[in-house]
Structure formats: structure tokens, C-alpha cells
Write a structure and sequence with these properties.
40% helix; 13 strands; 301 residues; 10 helices; 7-stranded parallel β-sheet; alpha/beta; 17% strand; Rossmann fold; two-stranded parallel sheet
Length: 301
């Protein structure tokens, strides 16, 4: 299997590299110059993208490239839609024309957050932000092209590198003794490495589980463990202190979302139901505490 990975130097792309290498020949593509072994290309240049795909002729495209700046997207809608909707649309067109397979990532932010039970794949989508709208538009574009594909929706992704909530909390903890954290938004933090492993199981099971893919093309994956941003921050600081990543645990104050105004509205409840991916591909989402500990251990001195 020849696999082309976009967004290779991102926090998910870096975790996907070893997982995908086990499945076949891997071609890594990224816009960042100097990414070791990767083809440098601006993925917003869709014409050049098609030329690249024609040259490489991959069997599978794993699209981990995305515009993920949720706040900035409110003022940069064109850029968000270019990467989150137009890019997957163009990839899906190419896959349909050449009978190739696309695996694409989406987000819990396609939902409104008004549910009181975990969101199943067929739940009504109603994004609250430009970011969520752009990701949903990408899903629709892929489906409209009717190529062979899987869309993996995930949530609250973090890793030991890149830009994410975990690293931001560690940085702040080194300079502040008191923090106010939103406590009325609930979701499932997901270690990028676990998402990469789940991706490997999905791709590895394609030929054995053709019937499952025919019945469903969208799956939810997140780690096991429902929490709020406030409780997640508390767990980060507890584990970081135990690993001596921080010298002192800041005092945390829970606050409502209304007390922390942001341009982009977030869903209050965006827990994803993962039963479908567990049943179809034997994916067993690891727990939050153990996954966070393993992630932080990579940063520990």
C-alpha cells in the first residue's frame, strides 16, 4: 500500500508517521520547509496538489492537514475554508477519478453541544463557529464526490509537541500561580498517538471489513474519559507536578464560558460515541489518565 500523508509535521502528522510506515510505503507532504524526508508543498495551492497526486499515484491519502486556529477562523474564514473544505474536496475528486481511498479527519465542533448524551455519527450537525462550519463543509464535499473514504471525527487533540491545551497549561503554570479555567464545556481529550493508532487499525482493516465501510463512512474516535477543561487542567497539573515538569501546582478557579468571552462559540457538550469504530475495527480507546501520563512522560526531564 502506497500512502500519502498531508500535514506531516503537525502534531497528528508526526504521530501518524510511524503508524503508517508499518502499513506500506509512506510519502509525507508538508508546507513547512526542512521537515525531514517530507515533500514541501503549499497545500492551499490546489492546482499544484493535483500535479503532486498525479506524480505520486498513492493508493491511500491520509489528510491530516487542516486549519485549526478556532479563534482566528472567525476573522480568516477564507483561509479556514480553503484548507478545511476546498482541500479535501479536491483530494476526494482525485480519489474518485482514480479509484483511490481517502481517510480524512473532522471534529466534534460540527455539533452544537446541546445534547446530553454522547453524539453518534448520524446525529444532527449544527456547528457554532466558522471553524466548525469549515470542517463540516469538508465532510460534505467528500461525501458529494462519492469516493471511497472514511471520515474520522475526533476531539480535544493534544500531544507532547505542537500547539495544544496541555502544552499551553504547562507554559502558563511556570509563570502564574493562579488560573481561571472554563468549567462548563465537556468533552473527551484525545492523545494524538492514540488517534494515530486507531487510524492504523482502520486502514489495516480495510480489506477485511469492506461491509462495515459500505454501511458507514463516518466514525467517531476519542479517548475514553469525559471531562471539562477545568478538570482536565487540574489533572495536567497533578501529573506534571509528579513528573517534576512544574515546581508548583497553580490554584485553579472554575469559571463559566460567559466569563471568558471568545470570538468563536464552543459546544458545551461534545462527547463522541465511539461504539461504531470499536465494533467495526476492534479499536479500544485508552483511558484519559494513562494516556496523559504517557504523553507528559515524553516531556519529563
Amino acid at each position: 500500500m502506497k500512502i500519502l500523508l498531508t500535514g506531516a509535521s503537525g502534531q497528528l502528522g508526526r504521530e501518524l508517521t510511524p503508524a503508517l510506515t508499518q502499513l506500506g510505503e509512506l510519502i509525507r507532504v508538508d508546507r513547512v520547509a526542512g521537515s525531514a524526508g517530507a515533500i514541501q508543498q503549499d497545500l492551499s495551492d490546489l492546482h499544484r496538489l493535483e500535479k503532486l497526486l498525479d506524480q505520486q499515484r498513492p493508493d491511500v491519502i491520509v489528510n491530516a492537514a487542516a486549519y485549526t486556529a478556532v479563534e482566528q477562523a472567525e476573522n480568516e474564514g477564507h483561509q479556514a475554508f480553503r484548507l478545511n473544505a476546498e482541500l479535501p474536496d479536491r483530494i476526494a475528486r482525485w480519489c474518485k477519478a482514480h479509484d483511490k481511498f481517502l481517510l480524512h479527519y473532522s471534529t466534534d465542533y460540527v455539533f452544537s453541544g446541546e445534547s446530553t448524551a454522547p453524539y453518534v455519527e448520524d446525529a444532527i450537525t449544527q456547528p457554532l463557529s466558522v471553524y466548525g462550519e469549515s470542517k463540516l463543509a469538508g465532510e460534505w464535499a467528500i461525501k458529494a464526490n462519492r469516493c471511497r473514504h472514511v471520515v474520522l471525527r475526533t476531539s480535544w487533540v493534544y500531544s507532547s509537541h505542537g500547539t495544544n491545551f496541555v502544552l499551553k497549561m504547562l507554559e502558563i503554570a511556570r509563570t502564574k500561580r493562579e488560573l481561571s479555567i472554563v468549567s462548563d464545556q465537556t468533552g473527551c481529550p484525545t492523545w494524538a498517538r492514540n488517534l494515530a493508532r486507531a487510524t492504523g487499525l482502520v486502514l489495516g482493516g480495510l480489506s477485511q471489513r469492506t461491509s462495515a465501510l459500505t454501511e458507514r463512512e463516518t466514525f467517531h474516535y476519542c479517548d475514553a474519559g469525559v471531562t471539562s477543561w477545568y478538570d482536565f487542567a487540574r489533572l495536567i497539573f497533578e501529573q506534571a507536578a509528579a513528573l517534576k515538569l512544574i515546581s508548583e501546582v497553580p490554584h485553579l478557579k472554575p469559571i463559566p464560558s460567559a466569563a471568558f468571552p471568545q470570538l468563536a462559540r464552543r459546544p458545551a457538550y461534545s462527547v463522541l460515541d465511539t461504539r461504531s469504530i470499536q465494533q467495526a475495527f476492534g479499536v479500544a480507546p485508552p483511558g484519559l489518565e494513562a494516556s496523559l501520563r504517557d504523553c507528559l512522560s515524553e516531556i519529563a526531564p
